[in-house]
Amino acid sequence: GENVEQHPSTLSVQEGDSAVIKCTYSDSASNYFPWYKQELGKRPQLIIDIRSNVGEKKDQRIAVTLNKTAKHFSLHITETQPEDSAVYFCAAIPTMDSSYKLIFGSGTRLLVRP
Amino acid sequence: KAGVTQTPRYLIKTRGQQVTLSCSPISGHRSVSWYQQTPGQGLQFLFEYFSETQRNKGNFPGRFSGRQFSNSRSEMNVSTLELGDSALYLCASSPNPDSEQYFGPGTRLTVT
User: Does the beta carbon of B26 lie under 8 angstroms from any beta carbon of chain A?
Assistant: First the structure.
């Protein structure tokens, strides 16, 4: 079945720097890739997503890039702020079984140092 | 619109008991998925429902079951609870099966 690997598991950056989190997926037919942010004790929140017919998508300080050939996608956060500190999860929806279940990466704990 | 709601928010049960968790999706959303979140296994897919039909199930034992009602509300049931079932159970709703999924606050289940 689909497998999603996420790196790094922890990331510490200085406020104002950029942060990049990378994910690879195994099902070449996957066509939807969301990113979620989960603060301590809260629900995962969808922050950005991308479909396989698009190579890049931006929303203010957040961007996601997708390389279908290499089967990897990345989250880019620019001008990081302390409130960006959270656990970030990437996910993919495998299409081989026509069910729209999210397969999640293992998460990246981002710490933005003031 | 009101977000996804889940009840109860916290639950403590003992081994061998059963539990039923409830999820009310965002109004108009017809697809509901359930996930289990634990520190060791991360976020794992349990099941997905659309129009009262379970369309897929994750790799969980038969003790885990669910259903969806005609108003799209969903319940999941875990029978014969084990210590390892302690987790945060999250449901997510989406307007259509291939659309973005929005999570509820979760039900934190502790099995003692």
Answer: no
C-alpha closest to that of B68 among B100, B44, B41, B97 = B97
B95 touches chain A (CB under 8 A): no
Helix or strand or coil: residue A101?
A: coil
User: A93 is written with which tokens?
Assistant: 């929806």
Q: Does B101 touch chain A (CB under 8 A)?
A: yes
pLDDT digits (tens, 9 = 90+) for A37-83: 999 999 999 999 998 888 999 999 999 999 999 999 999 999 999 99
State pLDDT tens for residues B11-42.
999 999 999 999 999 999 999 999 999 998 89
The SS3 assignment for A68 reads coil
Name the one residue in this structure whose structure tokens are 């009101």.
B2
Question: Nearest Cβ partner of B33 from A42, A97, A101?
Answer: A101
